[in-house]
Specification:
single chain; 9 helices; six-stranded parallel sheet; alpha/beta; 14% strand
Length: 246
């Protein structure tokens, strides 16, 4: 299958995909960006492995490697896939993904459930909305609470009330850009700095000065400009028609 896009954006959180829209709209003015989405049913066991398998099934049909990008859990999927199938990935762009990739907002939520036992689920999610968005919460708080609650059920997050897990830390063979925010309570500047142990000399790190966990929603143009610069650099060094080497 001939590729008709420049970048593939991964989303595994359908209830939160509206937060990606400002960035994707901005990027689409300059390049062709496609979206790959995954949603599991309420009765389905949470499995990142299934998402990886389905993504691989799709990417195997393409005639050359692609630029993969994603925020949060979508970025975790992109990272996991790139580590397993680097020959299918031209570059990797991660937004709000920690070096310990399992450290998502979902993990933070379940840790808080154990610590703040007097809080009901709605109260804890309301507290989390303030932490994740702050003054950048342009959607009503109730809508954001509902979106986060839904994401706990239908995204392939790795955690539960019974266990908060970890993932192996490692580098990745493909060119990579890691983006974060100075005010992110989940992927804090310290967590972001931990990436330095795994970055190659050619890899790029960028920190948005504000915007909390969803900085790409709060600052789509600034984030988009940094991503575009990274992809343009990669495109200049790797011919666009380079075929996958089997």
């Amino acid at each position: 299958m001939s590729i008709q896009f420049d970048v593939l954006w991964l989303n595994v959180s359908p209830s939160l995909k509206a937060l990606d829209r400002p960035l994707l709209n901005y990027l689409s003015k300059t390049l062709s960006i496609a979206q790959w989405e995954y949603c599991q049913s309420d009765d389905e066991a949470s499995s990142l492995e299934k998402a990886i398998a389905l993504l691989h099934e799709y990417l195997q049909q393409l005639d050359r490697p692609v630029h993969l990008a994603g925020h949060g859990l979508g970025g975790v999927l992109a990272l996991s896939y790139a580590r397993r199938y680097p020959n299918r990935v031209r570059s990797l762009s991660l937004l709000s993904v920690a070096a310990q990739a399992a450290a998502t907002w979902h993990a933070h939520y379940y840790v808080q459930r154990h610590l703040l036992t007097s809080f009901s689920k709605p109260q804890l999610l309301a507290h989390l909305v303030k932490s994740l968005f702050g003054e950048f919460a342009s959607y009503p708080t109730k809508a954001l609470i509902s979106a986060l609650d839904r994401d706990l059920s239908v995204s392939p997050n790795l955690h539960s009330l019974f266990e908060v897990v970890s993932l192996p830390k490692a580098s990745v063979a493909v060119p990579m850009m890691v983006c974060g925010s100075s005010t992110d309570p989940i992927v804090s500047p310290t967590e972001l700095h931990a990436w330095h142990a795994y970055l190659k000399p050619s890899d790029v790190m960028w920190k948005c000065p504000d915007g909390r966990h969803f900085f790409h929603f709060a600052f789509p143009q600034q984030t988009g400009d940094r991503l575009l610069k990274f992809w343009q650099h990669i495109n200049a060094k790797v011919p666009p028609d380079q075929l996958i080497r089997v």
